[in-house]
Amino acid sequence: MKYMMFVCTDSEPEMVAEDHIDQWVAENDALGRRLQGSELAPTTAATTVRVRDGRLLVSDGPFAETKEVIVGFDLLECADLDEAIEVARAHPMARRGRLELRPLVGSEQ
To answer: N or C terminus: fewer CB in 10 A for the chain?
Structure first.
């Protein structure tokens, strides 16, 4: 089953040496559990697109009025939610932010 894992934090994170994210990535890539992933550019690079009453509205930055920021994502392939939770639990950002798991519709095995 495929899961999108959003990597979230309360602010733009500073990476520190003890994060070991490269180690987490290498391990999950080698096991075939991480299909793709990337850090995202800062929210200052974001563009929000909406259509309201037939009008295109484009604005700089994220639309949501929140301090929480999505700073990256990983596409996971796991046997079930329990395995996806264990993969997320081991991610270094689980200790400084939060990881949101969502199954991809139609990815059930």
So the answer is: C
> Looking at the whole model, is its pTM more than 0.85?
no
Query: Contacts from 61-69 at CB under 8 Å and sequence distance 24+?
Result: 67/10, 67/11, 68/8, 68/9, 68/10, 69/8, 69/9, 69/10, 69/11, 69/12, 69/43
Distance between CA atoms of 50 and 83, rounded to whole angstroms?
A: 36
Q: In the chain, where does DSSP find H-type helix?
A: 21-30, 81-89
Q: Where are the domains of the chain?
A: 2-103
Q: What is the pLDDT of residues 35-53, one digit of tens each?
A: 999 999 888 888 888 899 9
Written out in words, the top-level CATH class of the domain with range 2-103 is alpha beta
